[in-house]
Amino acid sequence: AQKVTQAQTEISVVEKEDVTLDCVYETRDTTYYLFWYKQPPSGELVFLIRRNSFDEQNEISGRYSWNFQKSTSSFNFTITASQVVDSAVYFCALSEGDTGFQKLVFGTGTRLLVSP
Amino acid sequence: DVKVTQSSRYLVKRTGEKVFLECVQDMDHENMFWYRQDPGLGLRLIYFSYDVKMKEKGDIPEGYSVSREKKERFSLILESASTNQTSMYLCASSLAGGQIDTQYFGPGTRLTVL
User: Fold this and answer.
1) Who is most buried in A32, A52, A90, B72, counting CB within 10 A?
2) B76 phi and psi, to 5 degrees?
3) Which residues does chain B have with pLDDT short of 50?
4) Chain B residues within 8 A of A104 when measuring between CB atoms
């Protein structure tokens, strides 16, 4: 069965610090997709990134970067030089298979608090 | 940009009432989903739909039903609301039924059942 673990319930940092949010997943499939979403205080989940299981290249988008390691079943998310606007709950999610319906399994989320 | 809207941001209902939560997407997506979000539990899938008039149970369908009469609209129905259904409800949609694709979410409806 699929499972996503976000062991960090809450992280507090001061602005400009770097922070890494951990995500560990379990799946028996060889084809799967991993996602990160951001949920600001307004409540809407904002899509950040999707990565398929065959692409282990790390990705960087501005201050955001993602490190995908199949060997440790991890898909960690790093924010460099954090800002107050980064304060949100971040969810990691997993979807299995290359066909069929896209049932996402979410982790329980990590609340990031960035103080000025 | 994908736009998913939900009829209410906040809703207060009484135990036993019938509750309708509406979700509309404007990107011609085939798939639509209803989740509930509770502290410490993340998001859990209630129902999803891959086509008009089609529906599938998710992980926690008990106490809920859904309706999809038009492609752009997906309604979640609480036939007789109970206090344990107090939660945040999130709707999502995605393109291309039968393939893995990104789900886009609405702003959520925070439902309180008294």
Assistant:
1) A90
2) -105, 130
3) none
4) 43, 45, 103
